[in-house]
């Protein structure tokens, strides 16, 4: 018998979520953002599920090459561009679109001798202060790129810092972007998942949805269910041990949890070495045979404990959902003081993956 923990990727949910985001932005094309191994869902698996997408966006040129080798001919955008000059030749040969966000990348592009010109996304910094040129340089940079024979087309690009925070929104960044690019009349890509949903003015020719593809809400105050999204990942396991404890007994490392009354404790084959957050506190929700329970005590490397006191039918072998179709990953993440992105991306290689 194999260890019972498993991740299941729901390909129908991925497809549903992509259709939903397209309905939000019917006039835009959408790059499905599949960076970070498709947010832990598997690069190839997710690309195959979304084979009808308008395009893909990721980071590593090696992963883009894998997709080309598998026959994916759709547009692929490298979100951080190239990391060394030699990669420009590959981009030209395999028709990768590249972000250009630094003076060094501009120089490489000007010095290259490419067989074919490449499509560029000019990254502008409108206040995120992460990557990109100062937005006010847009006209100067577009002129410079337009004179470069290695450049086939230019799309303007920026990223929103607070699209998911209604009290801050995007106006402060969008106004700066629009002022800097008003006379350029170029296509643009601005909208992440939150902006795609809430700000029609940011949708542009291309949108770049990430987290909503995987069935998680980009908003703290609106659930994935409220948005019509479906969970694309379930993390499940089973109870492998049961303990009866008395009032005053402790559970787990550090004896951080003490029972206030007699309790029945279930031990689950899942721990931080599987990717479950070690900092998830007592009270973090979990489902046992479809009934809500909660974690107790500290997460171990390979196991965690939960309360079975009110679930008398639970026993060794009972099904446990850590997150998935019935228990939102967003709720688990909130209880653990993190975000769903981190939970998805943290799943360890040792956890078996199934697809339905």
Your description of this structure?
With 356 residues, this protein is α/β, with parallel strands linked by helices. It folds into 2 domains: 11-214, Alpha-Beta Barrel (TIM Barrel); 233-355, Beta Barrel (Lyase, Ornithine Decarboxylase, Chain A, domain 1). 26% of the residues lie in helices and 24% in strands. It contains 11 helices and 19 strands. The chain has helices at 11-24, 35-39, 43-49, 61-69, 86-94, 103-111, 138-146, 171-181, 193-198, 329-335, 340-346; strands at residues 6-9, 29-33, 55-58, 76-78, 96-100, 118-125, 133-134, 151-157, 188-189, 206-207, 233-245, 250-251, 257-258, 263-268, 285-288, 291-296, 304-307, 319-323, 353-355. The strands form 3 sheets. Strands 2, 3, 4, 5, 6, 7, 8, 9 and 10 form a 9-stranded parallel β-sheet that branches. β3, α4 (61-69) and β4 form a beta-alpha-beta unit. The longest helix has 14 residues, at 11-24. The chain is elongated, with a radius of gyration of 23 Å. The two termini are 21 Å apart.
Short key terms for the protein model shown above:
Lyase, Ornithine Decarboxylase, Chain A, domain 1, 26% helix, 2 domains, 11 helices, six-stranded antiparallel β-barrel, nine-stranded parallel beta sheet, 356 residues
């Amino acid at each position: 018998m194999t260890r019972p923990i498993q991740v299941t990727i729901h390909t129908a949910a991925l497809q549903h979520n992509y259709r939903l985001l397209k309905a939000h932005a019917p006039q835009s094309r959408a790059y499905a953002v599949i960076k970070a191994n498709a947010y832990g869902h598997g690069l190839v698996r997710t690309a195959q599920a979304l084979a009808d997408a308008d395009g893909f966006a990721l980071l590593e040129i090696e992963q883009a090459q894998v997709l080309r080798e598998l026959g994916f001919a759709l547009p692929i955008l490298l979100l951080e561009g190239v990391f060394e000059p030699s990669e420009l030749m590959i981009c030209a040969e395999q028709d990768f679109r590249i972000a250009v966000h630094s003076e060094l990348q501009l120089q490489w592009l000007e010095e290259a001798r490419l067989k074919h010109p490449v499509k560029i996304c000019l990254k502008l910094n409108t206040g995120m202060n992460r990557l990109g040129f100062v937005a006010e340089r847009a006209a100067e940079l577009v002129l410079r790129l337009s004179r470069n024979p290695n450049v086939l087309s230019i799309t303007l690009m920026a990223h929103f810092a607070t699209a998911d925070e209604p009290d801050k929104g995007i106006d402060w960044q969008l106004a700066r972007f629009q002022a800097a690019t008003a006379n350029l009349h170029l296509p643009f890509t601005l909208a992440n998942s939150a902006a795609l949903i809430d700000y029609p003015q940011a949708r542009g020719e291309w949108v770049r949805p990430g987290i909503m593809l995987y069935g998680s809400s980009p908003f703290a105050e609106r659930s994935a269910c409220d948005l019509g999204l479906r969970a694309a990942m379930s993390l499940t396991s089973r109870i492998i041990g049961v303990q009866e404890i008395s009032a005053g007994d402790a559970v787990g490392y550090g004896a951080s949890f003490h029972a206030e009354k007699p309790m029945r404790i279930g031990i689950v084959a899942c721990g931080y070495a599987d990717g479950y957050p070690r900092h998830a506190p007592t009270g973090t929700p979990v489902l046992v045979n479809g009934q809500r329970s909660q974690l107790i005590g500290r997460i171990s490397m390979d196991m965690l404990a939960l309360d079975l006191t009110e679930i008398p039918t639970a026993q060794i072998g009972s099904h446990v959902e850590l997150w998935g179709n019935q228990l939102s990953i967003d709720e688990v993440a909130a209880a653990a003081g993190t975000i769903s992105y981190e939970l998805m991306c943290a799943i360890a290689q040792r956890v078996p993956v199934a697809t339905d």
